Each structure stands twice: as structure tokens, then as C-alpha cells.
């Protein structure tokens, strides 16, 4: 018995990586590094890439750098790999500008986070997303991450937003599994797990797949979780998810931001990562050693 897929195929594939933005040691955008990393991620199982998200350090990259990144990655992976670009800011006008810019640069969709810091009420939040959706021809992925923004996209708001023809997906970091299932039961929104520990759980109740930070370092192993479930082997899928838990915890929940831990691990593996931009700071030697040991243990399992 295989997993029953949603009535419509996921708009951007199932296995998406929230890609880091490589920088040089001088802190400049490393476009050749981004191309190399993107090509590796696709060759090892990623269906699509999310650029300039949280993991991609979007708050500290310029508008011009965001466009250049789309253009460079498109050149590296071709036209058949969906590229979603983060355009969310705390300013509706700026978000609209970034959405139009992403469309011109060749993105296939935009990731729009709830406006942070200002904490708009639900009616204002809904109006914000609708204005961004109306601003370009690109489909939208709503990014629900109240732990960072201070504002939840409530399930009833999500259900209303799903009526918009260009609001097609959600990156879910709400930690509200009940609320997610309420929306899934009523709308065709493609729900992507934004927290790696939820990859299998969300997929099993009708989710579309994942947008993963951890996939920057182990893309094939995370893809295998979905593939095993699709093949009808739930016990194997569960074991693969459980096996990834220590690495997920160390990368995402050990006190350092995922951008910092992932770049540290990529650098230690000789892959493009580079520095992080302030206010983030690089991981210390002990943290890097711990990450590398956890990675080696996971790969060897």
C-alpha cells in the first residue's frame, strides 16, 4: 500500500532544501559557491530549492544580492528545478517590490513570512499576504514561523488565504499539528514541513513534503524518508526519520542558529559555506567538532 498523494501534485516538488547563501571569507556573496552547492543538492535528491529564506540569511542580504542569487542558481540547475525565493520583510511595500524583482530574476515562486516585529493582527496579516499575492504572477508559499515573527497565521486565516489562486503552499514551523490538520482537511494547500523532525509526521497526514535546512548537508538521506513512505514501507521510513534525529537536534536545536551550524559543517566538509554575516557569528571549534562527529556517525549508520 502506498501513500495517497494529494489531488494536485506538490507545486514545487516534495524534497526542498532551504539553501544557505555562501559568502566569501570577506563576507561577499559567493555566486560560484552557490552554483556548486545548488548543483550538488539537486544531484543528491532535492526536487527544488528555497533561496533567501531564514537559512539563506535574507535579513542581511541586499535586494541586488537576492536577484543575483536567483540568476546564478538558475544557471547552475536549469529550468526544470523549481526555485522559490524568500521575499518576506516587515514592510508590505518592500515585500511587494521583492516579489516583482524575484519574478523578473526567474524565480518560480516566492516565500513570504509574516511581517515580524510589528505583529499585525489577523486581518492586517491577511491583507498583507493578499497584496503580495496580487503584485506578481508568481505562486506564494506562506511561511508560518511564529517563534521568529511573533505572529501566528491562524488556521482560519490560512483557510481564507487559500481561496486566493496564487497562494498555493505553506512552509510550516508553527508547531501546531492540530491546526495544520484542520487546514489540510479543508483546503488544497500544499503543506511543507519546515521543521526537520516533522518530515514524516506531516507527510503521513497529507503534507506535500519538506523545506529543510538539514538537507544542505544530507539531502539524499532526508529524501529517503519520503521515498520509503511512498513505497509503502512505513517502518523503514520511521527508522530513517529516527536515525536523523541526533543530527537534526544538533544542527537545529543546540543553541546556535541553523545557518551557523550548517555553514560550519559544510565548511568542515570542504563544501561552499563561508562566513556568516553579523549579527550572526561563526561556530566555535568545539561546536564544529561535535557537528562533524554527529555527521560522520549519521553517514556511517
From TrEMBL:
Pathway: Amino-acid biosynthesis; L-lysine biosynthesis via DAP pathway; (S)-tetrahydrodipicolinate from L-aspartate: step 3/4
EC number(s) reported in the record: 4.3.3.7
Catalytic residues identified in the record: 143, 171
Enzyme class: lyase
Site (Part of a proton relay during catalysis): residue numbering on this chain: 54, 117
Subcellular location per the Swiss-Prot or TrEMBL entry: Cytoplasm
CDD domains per the UniProt record, alphabetical: DHDPS (cd00950)
Family: Belongs to the DapA family.
Record PANTHER family: 4-HYDROXY-2-OXOGLUTARATE ALDOLASE, MITOCHONDRIAL, DIHYDRODIPICOLINATE SYNTHASE
Primary role: Catalyzes the condensation of (S)-aspartate-beta-semialdehyde [(S)-ASA] and pyruvate to 4-hydroxy-tetrahydrodipicolinate (HTPA).
Protein name: 4-hydroxy-tetrahydrodipicolinate synthase
Species for this entry: Streptomyces prunicolor
Gene (name only): dapA
